[in-house]
Specification:
The chain is an alpha+beta fold and 451 residues long. It contains 12 helices and 18 strands. The protein binds zinc ion (2 copies).
Length: 451
């Protein structure tokens, strides 16, 4: 399908979403249809100028400027990381009389991925990886540029609809979701003390699992919690031909990684899903040298505090046992480091709020455009805004982002379309943005609606 065909298709789809009579009568909808071309332009600009986590200069400037233009009181550079560096968080406030405060969150960062979509607005940005120091591509492979653009559209729509809601809107452009330390950085910068504590939090994420024009929401558990763990397996180095004089950390690592698999299969309650993945392992420099140590990075996933504890206890016990079995002295035992800063709680959709959001989505888009989704193991740091123990109710929903026909064709052929974190992930801009703006605006109008 050519680009103009796609645009035409989108215009038709939009007309289907909003009947002509309602469109004429509804100032909000008019704002939404009038602003769509500009939003698509903003989206494409953001897409071709992505910034990695901690480096969201462009997105943060754009979001701040657009929210200001829409009449919000905007503060940027909100957030401070544990090393004292500033974050690119944006907060836009609009007060509209007494009533509840609603936080609408959109994340803004991109990923170290070389874009392979071939789109005319594809990213060609490269940068030095903060992890490896090597040159990497930068791509909005998770669609956070969609989220930021939707936030701008929602800001305008709700500013135009002030007569229909009351309370306070707190629009948050969040940095560093991919490193799950952005929400925490904003709270550490006294987000709620400075701007007020919200009564409810909503957000959305694009997905390849649903067609553009549709949405899905989980009631209750939505996404797993994650804790990052770094491990250094220490040994005693030596000649590769004389292993008896050394303690080989590479062999110890192999044993350790195999044993880690028994946490999910033997230590944990089978009715509680968990994941323990070793995503990176580095050790050694030459084939005939037994190195001093091997470093590995793990990610863990779970839905309860108890499961988290089972995983972390399992890792610690196995590491201690490894040193014992190898006869290593205490000062050469493995070092286990829990990275609390690169961790996030499970995303829990408060059932009462999630059901209100689900009903609002059904009214906004039509009941057939809203499904109930199951919990998934990927993680998010949006739950950090809810404070420990889910003190502030949260509802987070999925926004379909791929062409319906292409999705049906792919599934008929037995596969899925490229999704978030894939170098071919290419959301359909027009219909995805239109649906995101319309649905989130209607969710906000429901939650802040006048009695
Ligand atoms: Zn992501
Ligand atoms: Zn994401």
């Amino acid at each position: 399908m050519s680009r103009s065909d796609r645009l035409l298709g989108t215009a038709c789809a939009l007309a289907l979403l909003v009947p002509a009579a309602a469109r004429a009568a509804d100032a909000v909808t008019t704002v939404q249809s009038q602003q769509l071309p500009r939003l698509v332009e903003i989206y494409k600009t953001l897409h071709s100028h992505p910034g990695l986590s901690h480096h969201e200069e462009t997105a943060s400037e754009t979001v701040a400027a657009e929210l200001r233009k829409a009449g919000y009181e905007v503060t940027d550079h909100v957030g401070v990381y544990p090393d004292g560096s500033r974050a690119y968080g944006v907060v836009g406030i609009m007060k509209n009389g007494p009533g509840p405060t609603l936080l609408i969150r959109a994340d803004m960062d991109a990923l170290p991925v070389i874009e392979a979509t071939g789109l005319p607005y594809a990213s060609h940005v490269t940068t030095k990886s903060p992890v490896t120091g090597l040159e990497v591509g930068v791509m909005h492979a998770c669609g956070h540029d969609i989220h930021s653009t939707v936030l701008i559209g929602v800001a305008r729509s709700l500013a135009a609809a002030r007569s229909r809601w009351h309370g306070t809107l707190m629009l948050v452009g969040q940095p560093s979701e991919e490193t799950v330390d952005g929400a925490r950085a904003m709270l550490a910068d006294h987000l709620y003390e400075r701007f007020g504590r919200p009564d409810m939090i909503v957000g959305l994420h694009d997905t390849n699992a649903f067609a553009a024009g549709t949405t899905a929401i989980a009631i209750g558990e939505a996404q797993a919690g994650t804790t990052s763990v770094d491990i250094t397996i220490r040994g005693i180095g030596g000649h590769g031909a004389e292993p008896q004089a050394a303690r080989d950390p590479i062999v110890l690592s192999a044993q350790f990684i195999t044993q880690l698999q028994t946490i999910a299969s033997r230590e944990n309650d089978p009715l509680e899903p968990v994941v323990v993945t070793v995503g990176s392992i580095h050790g050694g420099a030459k084939r005939n040298i037994i190195p001093e140590e091997v470093k590995m990075q793990l990610t863990t996933r779970y839905f309860t505090d108890h499961s988290r504890q089972v995983i972390l206890d399992g890792i610690r016990n196995m590491a201690a046992g490894l040193a014992l079995s190898a006869g290593l002295p205490a000062d050469r035992a493995p070092i286990v480091t829990i990275d609390e800063n690169e961790s996030a709680p499970p995303t829990y959709n408060d059932p009462a709020l999630a059901n209100r959001v689900r009903a609002a989505l059904a009214r906004s888009l039509g009941a057939d455009k809203v499904s109930v989704s199951q919990k998934v193991m990927p993680s998010e740091d949006v739950g950090v805004f809810g404070l420990p123990g889910h003190q502030i109710p949260l509802a987070y929903y999925s926004l379909g982002a791929v062409d319906a026909d292409a999705l049906a064709k792919a599934r008929a052929a037995g596969h899925e379309l490229p999704g978030p974190h894939n170098d071919h992930f290419a959301p359909v801009p027009e219909l995805t943005l239109a649906t995101g703006v319309k649905s989130m605006t209607d969710v906000a109008l429901t939650l802040l609606g006048k009695p």
